[in-house]
């Protein structure tokens, strides 16, 4: 694949994102067009209760790069990635949250590594919008527990990552978790298989619409439970 024309599937799971979905998608489309990418954009509507599905369908009607997949029940971000992966056709894929759409500055650090790395992991300089307790919890989770249990060398395993699509079909990388632990599990599997993982600087934007679900006790508890289940099940 020529580096000047990278091929990218952009996956955007969306649950009750009516206020911000359209602007997020349009910003990503503009960024990818300016970068000269060969790309497709896949919205996974995770059984939203608002007009998210309707907006997604309209975007697909108006923009040929956009396709929509609909979940009949709410399944979580990891399931959204699995659904998007099944629909994706490009060499690389990237998971983009609605509240952090790609600007040209956000995308630029990833591009030089397309065609070379198997996974490109974005490393945030700061957690924007995190309350103090969430910052402390995030530090303990990503900088203490994950390295201690799994010896993972990626410092920010829960942010935006680009994956070579073939690692799932040819390298046996599995997405077994629907909550926040799924990107961590992908990185651990990839590191153990000796795949090429590079880290790039990334920024986190302040969420303008709605509330993030990652701070909820149920989401945090599920991430911890999934982490321990993976630790007990994985060979060491």
Number of strands: 7
Protein structure class: alpha/beta
CATH topology: Spore Coat Polysaccharide Biosynthesis Protein SpsA, Chain A
Beta-strand residue fraction: 15-25%
Question: Helical region count?
Answer: 8
Shape: globular
Strand order of the largest sheet: 3-2-1-4-6-5-7
Helix-residue proportion: 25-40%
Mean pLDDT: 90
- The end-to-end span amounts to 35 Å
Protein topology:
Blueprint: E1 7-14, H1 21-34, E2 38-45, H2 52-62, E3 66-70, H3 77-87, E4 92-95, H4 104-107, E5 119-124, H5 132-150, E6 161-164, H6 166-169, H7 182-192, E7 197-202, H8 217-233
Parallel strand pairs: 1-2, 1-4, 2-3, 5-7
Antiparallel strand pairs: 4-6, 5-6
Question: Any overview of this molecule?
Answer:
This protein is α/β, with parallel strands linked by helices and 236 residues long. The protein has a single domain, classed as Spore Coat Polysaccharide Biosynthesis Protein SpsA, Chain A (Alpha-Beta Complex), CATH 3.90.550. Helix content is 39%, strand content 17%. The protein has 8 helices and 7 strands; from the N terminus they run βαβαβαβαβαβααβα. The protein has helices at residues 21-34, 52-62, 77-87, 104-107, 132-150, 166-169, 182-192, 217-233, and strands at residues 7-14, 38-45, 66-70, 92-95, 119-124, 161-164, 197-202. The protein starts with 6 loop residues before the first strand and ends with a helix. The model has no long low-confidence stretch (mean pLDDT 90).
